[in-house]
Amino acid sequence: MSPKFTIPMSSPDLTEAERQAVSAVLQTPYLSMGRELEAFEAAFCNFTGSRSAIGVNSGTAGLHLCVRAAGITEGDIVITTPFSFVSSTNVLLFERAVPIFVDVEATTGNINVGQVNQAVKDITSGGTAAENWLPSSVTFDKARLKAILVVDVFGQPSDMDPILEIAEEHNLKVIEDSCEALGAEYKGRKAGTLGDYGVFGFYPNKQITTGEGGVIVTSDDRAASIMLALRNQGRAPGDTWLEHSYLGYNYRLDEMSAALGRVQLTRLDEMLAKRSQVAAWYENRLFEIPEVETPQVEKSTSRMSWFVYVIRLTLAVDRDYVVSELEKRGIPARPYFAPIHLQRYMVEQFGYKEGDYPVTEDLGHRSLALPFSGVMKETQVDFVCSAIREIIHQAGM
Ligand SMILES: *Cc1c(COP(=O)(O)O)cnc(C)c1O
User: Fold this and answer.
1) What is the pLDDT of residue 361?
2) What are 208-261's pLDDT values in tens digits?
3) pLDDT value at residue 397
4) Atom of ligand 1 minimally distant from the CA of 206
5) In CATH, what number does 268-395 get?
6) Is there a cis peptide before residue 337, judged by omega within 30 degrees of 0?
7) Which residue out of 179, 305, 334 has the highest number of ligand 1 atoms within 8 Å of its CB and is therefore the one to mutate?
8) 3-state class (DSSP) for residue 288
9) pLDDT less than 50: residues of the chain
10) C-alpha distances in Å from residue 322, one per residue of 155, 194, 379
């Protein structure tokens, strides 16, 4: 934490049990590809009901393996969202696939299902309407629509039923980026298990952490065996240490990380309950400030897994001013997300411009992530909320 802040932006929730589990690994010679990874993966199969769980060394690595297992290659088209962390789009670009963005729902920031439907129709019908979905400078082969990559934004599942229906109708793979949504449920079903493959991320600000790490869950046995090989330098089952059936990666999750994650997963319910409590403290204090919109939970979300606490300021409020005033009081806050299509490398490659995805851009302009974690105290929430109220009122915004 930077010394200018008295409250951290986020914080892992660690106990003696985690420290002991990591320390126990260090009493053995097995620091990679051992029992802890197996146990961690088994716990994920148990938790999600998926047939396979594949531990990897980041959420991004997990998403990349989904793209490879789906057989997505150069020139293939994938429909996805520009309101996300960059990895969900980057993993497509790693394989020279073409992301086609559709805008998001204003309430949740999740992909807009009506627009997914329209995009699939326009692209598969073979007419010229398909061209509306990419800047005119980009040429693409409409016959190559392969997948939909959805993101469960801020811990809330996307509206998956209609997406699965469209995917089924057009034989598309569905990749679910649930890196922000471990433990969330959609109509009683677990986030991450709704599409063909789902990915969870365990960076220290996530609901559970392994330091760095991630897990893929899938019930597609063929995909799982490819992912296992690609994670381990392309070694297929039966390959020796220097035999590589595929072009693979080192995406392995080490034993210390797996041990940490295994204990964290046993504490998930407790940690999610604490996060919900912190979100409720925020809601109770912020809902009555007219310039502040608090996060909304959809009816289809039968369990919210609070990842971050992101408010939206009304347009009249100067967000940069609020951020700098909060900073003066020792409180960090940051815009979240910055639209992917407006990142420099995206503009250079695809020619996107302001105005292309108005809802994503509006959320990008007005959203503000406040300090949030399961170990945050009510007095700290009080301090943040009083500061926000005071700053907005003093500025007469
Ligand atoms: C955290 C996150 C990831 C994965 O991040 P890593 O740092 O690679 O573990 C992917 N997508 C989203 C939406 C995320 O929030």
Assistant:
1) 98
2) 999 999 999 999 999 999 999 999 999 998 999 999 999 999 999 999 999 999
3) 60
4) 1
5) 3.90.1150.10
6) yes
7) 179
8) coil
9) none
10) 25, 38, 20
Backbone φ and ψ of 259, nearest 5°: -65, -45
What phi and psi, each to the nearest 5 degrees, are found at residue 370?
-100, 165
So where are the chain's domains? 16-266, 268-395
What residues line ligand 1, using a CB cutoff of 6 Å?
58-60, 84-85, 87-88, 151, 177, 179-180, 201, 203, 214
The dihedrals phi and psi of 276, each to the nearest 5 degrees, come to -60, -40
- Using most ligand atoms within 8 A of CB, pick from 104, 177, 305 the residue to mutate for ligand 1: 177
Ligand 1 atom with the smallest distance to the CA of 60 is 8
pLDDT at 138: 84
Query: Are the C-beta atoms of residues 147 and 72 closer than 8 Å to each other?
Result: yes
State the pLDDT at residue 1: 55
- Would the CATH topology of 16-266 be identical to that of 268-395? no
Rounded distance between C-alpha atoms, residue 332 and residue 285, angstroms: 18
- In this prediction, residue 325 carries a pLDDT of 97
Predicted pLDDT at 143: 87
Beta pairing class for 52-56 and 214-218:
antiparallel
98, 103, 108, 109: CA torsion to nearest 10: 60
Question: Can you give the pLDDT at residue 126?
Answer: 78
Residue 348 phi, psi dihedral angles, 5° rounding:
-65, -40
DSSP string, 39-59: HHHHHHHHHH--SEEEEES-H
Structural Rg of the chain based on CA atoms: 21
304-325 b/e with 16+ CB inside 10 Å = b?
bbbbbbbbbbeeebebeebbeb
| pLDDT averaged over every residue in the chain | 96
**Any idea which residue has 């392969």 for tokens?**
146
Q: Which atom of ligand 1 is nearest to the CA of 199?
A: 10
Q: How many helices and strands in the chain, by DSSP H and E?
A: 13, 13
Q: What is the pLDDT of residue 141?
A: 87
16-266 fold: Aspartate Aminotransferase; domain 2 (3.40.640)
